[in-house]
Amino acid sequence: MKKRLLISVGVLLFLAVIYITSRSFFLTEPPDLIGRLDEQELLFHKGSYVWTSGIADAPEPTEIANQYEGYKVAPSTDMILSFSIQPSEYSVAQVTDMERSTIPVKDNTIRTPSEPGTYFIVIYGEWPAGTGTYVVKLEVDPK
What we know:
By secondary structure, this protein is α+β, with helices and mostly antiparallel strands. The protein has two helices and eleven strands, in the order αββββαβββββββ. Helix content is 18%, strand content 45%.
């Protein structure tokens, strides 16, 4: 009796791990990404990606973001990155007209730039089903 129970629990745990790690395989493109900043939600736009369903070649992330109005944000504010399915790994870059720099991420949280201006936040994510790029345009306003 105990042996059957242990085997059943083991099989269920195995299936749960498989389901959790492979959810991205059921998607036809990378999952959605939203930035949460106090009460404000910022929609990140998808760029190029390579996925099990195919390849999407998009313009440069800054070109994509320039098609949309930038979000007005306060300087040096924490932004929580919320993926609909968490990537196995990702990196974040801050881009301006003049430079590109890596932004540290801690507990899915980044900090908005400290100086006023227009910035692009570019995210490169990796899942078992592929890779994807995201971008959002920020207008940092000291008010």
